């Protein structure tokens, strides 16, 4: 169970702070059921998530040490292997909802390679690719920024420098 003040990842809504744990006084909601009150960081939206629900995708933010370890492994993480155009959008959604950093990086690398191939062939980048790459990078960078105590805008440069220093 999480506690008030914890910073967590909640589904695809992103990084949230738990501001309260209480019951809700709303019709149709069981009066004995506790809910986390979550404030989405960055847009101040409020979400109520049931405590102990298996359906709620919640997890703690990556730690500093785990973030550093993940960054050091980025060069070894393979891009997603070619996937059929018919199922690409479903694959993107599956990876996004996996909450698995390595899958996120694998997908970002795949979309980047796909983007380069399309541009080199004189084709436009697909809207689906652009949208999903942006979302994956936002989620990854936002979480890493909190773990590393830097701004989201600094994460890409931080990763680039760490990987360059490792070589």
Count of helix runs:
5
Class derived from helix and strand content? alpha+beta
Helix percentage: 40-55%
Number of strands: 5
Features:
167 residues, 5 strands, 5-stranded antiparallel beta sheet, alpha+beta, 5 helices
How would you describe this protein?
This protein has 167 residues and is an alpha+beta fold. Strands 4-3-2-1-5 form a five-stranded antiparallel beta sheet. It is globular. Helix content is 46%, strand content 17%. The protein has helices at 64-73, 88-96, 101-120, 127-148, 152-166; strands at residues 7-10, 14-23, 34-40, 46-50, 58-60.
In short:
This protein has 167 residues and is α+β, with helices and mostly antiparallel strands. Helix content is 46%, strand content 17%.
Please describe the topology of this protein:
Elements: E1 7-10, E2 14-23, E3 34-40, E4 46-50, E5 58-60, H1 64-73, H2 88-96, H3 101-120, H4 127-148, H5 152-166
Antiparallel strand pairs: 1-2, 1-5, 2-3, 3-4
